[in-house]
């Protein structure tokens, strides 16, 4: 078995770099053919992931966070290379959705265990394994990416507070194969899996094996309402709130002015976006 180990040493504020030697040693107990790649930035992560897949790796093992997982998904989707995620980031939403860990990956590799899972895809753009969002959440991402302090998850907490202070709703159009909605909305999240933002189950019932994308839409709400909804959101109970609408679709189009899409926490482009669920698009070591 040919294993490519892609290490993103900066992930998790350096956590990935600290455990890289241990992970490599574990993998070499399974197969002597382990080729390491060390990525110092996002461009390197994407490049090495594609090199591993085009080079014929049986498994691409990624030690990093959601950004690294997103890059690896782009390379492995639709290929013969199975993806193994060893979580070492700050959010780890992709790994959380599939209960992935170093011990779990080790056991699955030894047993030859594989799982076919769905992916979301932006037509003409990227694959996504977790959630694509736009509106309030994408503006939080935009703001957090501009902050140089604090580091880690607290940067996002600060960005959330800043965006709540400037909260607004904008016109949004959502079209699926079954229905069409036109409304003023605060945010939309389209989930292949439940989690984003470091464990928030924004699409709590999303199943990456049902051939469908789950859609959560928050309509126009005031600051006070949003503050009251946030604790429910973290517990996955927000879908019962009257301001929240949920849908399921194989494909959908979302349109709106001044809305930017983020998939797996990575910036995509401004709306409109056409999204599809692609069944069994990824082979996962799990």
Structure characterization notes:
Its EC number is 2.7.1.107. This is Diacylglycerol kinase (ATP). Belongs to the diacylglycerol/lipid kinase family. It comes from Kutzneria viridogrisea. GO terms for molecular function: ATP-dependent diacylglycerol kinase activity. The protein is of the alpha+beta class. It has 2 domains: 3-112, Rossmann fold, CATH 3.40.50; 127-279, Tumour Suppressor Smad4 (Sandwich), CATH 2.60.200. It is built from 8 helices and 17 strands. The protein has helices spanning 11-30, 42-54, 66-76, 93-97, 102-111, 136-146, 154-165, 223-235; strands spanning 3-7, 34-38, 59-64, 82-87, 114-122, 127-128, 131-135, 170-176, 180-191, 195-196, 200-201, 213-219, 244-249, 251-255, 260-263, 266-270, 273-285. The strands form 3 sheets. Strands 5, 6, 7, 8, 9, 12, 13, 14, 15, 16 and 17 form an 11-stranded antiparallel beta sheet that branches. The chain has a 4-stranded parallel beta sheet with strand order 2-1-3-4. Strand 10 and strand 11 (200-201) form a beta hairpin. Helix 6 crosses helix 7. It is globular and about 55 Å long.
């Amino acid at each position: 078995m040919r294993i490519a180990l892609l290490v993103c040493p900066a992930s998790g504020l350096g956590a990935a770099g600290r455990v890289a030697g241990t992970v490599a040693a574990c993998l070499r107990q399974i197969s002597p053919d382990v080729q390491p790649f060390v990525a110092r930035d996002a461009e390197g992560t994407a490049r090495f992931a594609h090199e591993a897949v085009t080079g014929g790796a049986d498994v691409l093992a990624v030690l990093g966070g959601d950004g690294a997982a997103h890059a690896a998904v782009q390379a492995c989707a639709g290929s013969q290379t199975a993806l193994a995620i060893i979580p070492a980031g700050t959010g780890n939403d992709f790994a959380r959705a599939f209960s992935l860990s170093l011990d779990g990956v080790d056991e699955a590799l030894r047993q030859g265990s594989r799982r076919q899972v769905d992916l979301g895809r932006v037509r003409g753009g990227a694959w996504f394994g977790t959630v694509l969002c736009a509106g309030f959440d994408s503006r939080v991402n935009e703001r957090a990416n501009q902050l140089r302090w604090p580091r880690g998850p607290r940067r996002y907490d600060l960005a959330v507070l800043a965006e709540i202070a400037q909260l607004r709703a904008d016109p949004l159009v959502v079209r699926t194969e079954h229905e069409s909605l036109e409304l003023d909305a605060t945010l939309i999240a389209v989930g292949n899996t439940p989690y984003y933002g470091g464990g928030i189950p924004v699409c709590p019932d999303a199943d990456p094996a049902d051939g469908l994308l789950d859609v959560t839409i928050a309509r126009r709400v005031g600051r006070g309402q949003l503050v009251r909804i946030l604790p429910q959101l973290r517990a996955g109970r927000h879908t019962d709130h009257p301001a929240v609408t949920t849908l399921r679709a194989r494909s959908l189009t979302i349109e709106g002015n001044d809305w930017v899409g983020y998939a797996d926490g990575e910036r995509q482009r401004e709306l409109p976006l056409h999204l599809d669920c692609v069944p069994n698009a990824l082979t996962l070591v799990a």
